[in-house]
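User:
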Amino acid sequence: GNLWPARLVRAMAEEAAGQGCLIRCGCPAVGLQGLTVRTAAGDVTATRAVCVCANAHIGGLLPELSHCITPMRNQVIMTAPLGRVVWPRGFAAEDDIWYGFQRPDTRLCLGGGRKEGEEETDNDGELNPELSAALRRFLTDNFEGLDDVEVEWEWPGVFAGTPDELPLVGQVPGRPGVYVCGVYCGQGMPCARAMAQATAELAFSGAEASVDPYLRRLRPTRFTRGGGGGGGGGGGGGGGGVEDPAPQRGAPL
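Assistant: Predicted structure:
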């Protein structure tokens, strides 16, 4: 089977609202000072903690972390119903560069192709024609009988990566009570819920970092000069901080 992310998120939001959580949509946060979040509708001041979970847009509220966050745009296409089964199960190919599944109504949903038209941007309001062509080319080059398939929908999405391809989870250096959670390097679906739970536990306890060895590796201090808590393998996530802030690519969505 396949997970429908939008339905899952709505169900979680309804459960949270039922327990007293106030959710404001269409109200962007435009600034953060101490524990006061500035929004388009006015300021909101937290009594305990603020969690910044804006993923590719985290740098807009926490500019000191912008050097270690690389936003990138990805795209997805959805075909018209084919009336036959082409993909009996979901798949990922070429190190997750391509991924897709077939819906019960026989529509094909294909995403990825990031390396075909790679760009660093947090703009998800327009399509990249190079990615559009690459997605269609992947269908016709790898599967028979799809030369004339109709694409009914296409949409972009923005994700983000860090130099060591690990998320950011923990208290922000120099900002008591401010926590960050995000930048999943394209792997948000399997890990975002666990990372959010870990961040909430930190915020409620007031701890700077988790005692869990893996979660300690995700602290944003690894990207500050002289910061501890080294990240995983790859570009410069070691315990001494990042001297060259140029981020490498994260994994695709």
